[in-house]
Structure formats: C-alpha cells, structure tokens
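[Q] Does anyone have a clean structure-token version of this?
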Amino acid sequence: MPLSKVKTGSIATSVTLTSPTFTTPALGTPSALVLTNATGTPSALVLTNATGLPQAGLGTNVVGNGPAFSVERSADQSITQNAYTRINFDSESFDLGSCYNNTGSTVTLNGVSVPAYSFGPNVAGYYLFFANLYNNPAGAGQYVTSVRKNGGNTLAGNLVNGSVSGGSSVSATTLLYANGTSDYFDVVAYASTGSPTVQGTSGFFGYLLRSA
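[A] Here you go.
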C-alpha cells in the first residue's frame, strides 16, 4: 500500500512528505566541520569552503604567524681587521613577535634573554636566516659574512675577494634550529684589509620556517 494513504477501518488518511532543503553557504563562510586531535579535543583549525583556510584559523606560534624580523644598519659601521666583528643592526623594518633586540645591551624578550643586536625567538623550530653586508674596502682582501648561534663558532658564511677600486656585497643564508628558550642569533663580519667598514644599507632577516 502506498505511504500516501493509510487505511484505518473505513477511514483513509492522506500524508504529505516534504523534501529537505539544501542551502549553499556564501564563499568565505566557515563550514561546520571542525578537526579534532587524537584525544577528541576540538582543535583551532576550522575548514572553510573554496576561499581557503583563513589566517585566523591557524594555531599560535606556527608557520604563518610565528616570529619574523627584518633589520638594517642605520649608518656605516667600522669593523676590526683580521677579526670577526658583530654587526649592530639597530634599525627594524619589522619585528613580528618582538624577538629581536636592536639595543646595545642584553634585554629579556618574551622570557628569553637576548644579547645586543640579536634575534632570540621564543618559539622552538627551524628558522631561515639571510644576511647581506656591503663592504667599503680600504684595500684588496677577503671579506666574510656569517650568521652565528649563541655567539659561538660561525655556522654559515660566505667569503669573497674585494678590490681597492670597488666595494663588495657578501651574503649568507642558512637554516638553523632554535630551542625557543635560550638560543639567539647574530651576524659577524670579517675583513683582511685595514680599517674596513660595513655600509648602512646592509641587512639581516629571519623567520620561522617550520615549528618543532
């Protein structure tokens, strides 16, 4: 017997079935799907439709909103011949997460003790660094730019031979791990000529590439 008619005794009753209505959300509207971790606790990641994942949906201290900085020299800096000299990058283009110390003394940033003119991130992970120094040579010689970790031995560097007639641009790029509690990074320069200077157009930047 069809569902539209149910017979009780001699009385027939009509039943009307209504189809469900489907509504497509507007672009950019978060969906109701929420991911959970292994314990079943909802995470901060919310899926959206074709417009993609919003920046606000990312968790804190991960790639996308982790520490990042870009600094420069505000003026030329003299460096010591035949020795590694720290470059005092004192002018910040940006400092996302407030992890770079552009002062001449040690300060505490986000619970991390950061020496002068150094980057001390408070998020553990792998950071990409790039430094470029413009040298004004006093004579022909060798010039080195290096990124250091915790003031120790240089971990990444590049060497070029400069000339008397023109300056040299020496850069260094490296990927280094930071523990997020005590590690810090700075840039040093080396020159084999007398009374060399690093020009104020020199720069240094870094950012969180992958969290630990």
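[Q] Thanks! Anything notable?
[A] DSSP finds no helices and 19 strands in the chain.
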